[in-house]
Amino acid sequence: MKKIFITLATFCMLQQMKAQDTKIIAHRGAWKEFDLPENSIAALQKAIEIKSYGSEFDVRRTLDGKLVVNHDPTHFGDTIELKTYAELNVKKLSNGEDLPLLEDYFKTGTASKHNTLLICEIKAALLSNTTSQLTTTETIALAKKLGIEERIIYISFDFEVLQTIRVNRPNAIVLYLENNKSLDEIKAAKFNGINFNYAHFIVNPSIALNAKKQNMMLGSWTVNKDEDFDKLVAQGVEFITTNFPDRYLTIKKAPR
């Protein structure tokens, strides 16, 4: 009976350690829990304030070559690639903020000595691969200019985008978002790891197992339910992106 008790206690301790090792990423900033516009400067600042491991955001390029932070390809119905920044910025975010420029986002996110990383998703352009590549090269050039390269993790659904980053920034951390390549292909591209939708890990736990065997970094999005969070923690997924970062930062500190 005593042996069983020790085994259970050890198991509980290991599970708690796994949860504490899990890194919580605020999805588009800590917006939902605090009633802020997603991808806003305010949402980024809140993610930093609650000490998220990282704050995820999305980068696109306007017609006149401005890099902006916005998830959708449109801003209040206007296609970002087809409008100038001035035209887009006529319409403000719900808290009165301008449509964030990437440079402002980078500067805000690295202005103080906090530990929150910038999880930079470069979006594929709607109309042209040339625009996707410009977005990529200009983003990494801006990070270098500002001297903040070590504070960024790059993610994308576009394999070529990450290949461009890898060629130009060999030391950058890059994680692939789309589950349409084999782990061997991703490893051969010299990416650091994967960041798949949570459902892929739940349906096929061998993904995490095989990725760990290849020493790949493991991330997942967008995890908003406790049952899914627990399953991913048990699989050893280290980066969990969620719309509820404050909630999961609190949960992972406590025994489950």
In short:
The chain is of the alpha/beta class. The protein has helices spanning 2-21, 41-49, 85-88, 102-109, 129-146, 159-168, 183-188, 198-203, 206-213, 226-235, 245-251; strands at residues 23-26, 54-61, 67-69, 74-75, 78-79, 117-122, 152-156, 173-176, 193-197, 217-221, 239-242.
Fold blueprint:
Blueprint: H1 2-21, E1 23-26, H2 41-49, E2 54-61, E3 67-69, E4 74-75, E5 78-79, H3 85-88, H4 102-109, E6 117-122, H5 129-146, E7 152-156, H6 159-168, E8 173-176, H7 183-188, E9 193-197, H8 198-203, H9 206-213, E10 217-221, H10 226-235, E11 239-242, H11 245-251
Parallel strand pairs: 1-2, 1-11, 2-6, 6-7, 7-8, 8-9, 9-10, 10-11
Antiparallel strand pairs: 2-3, 4-5
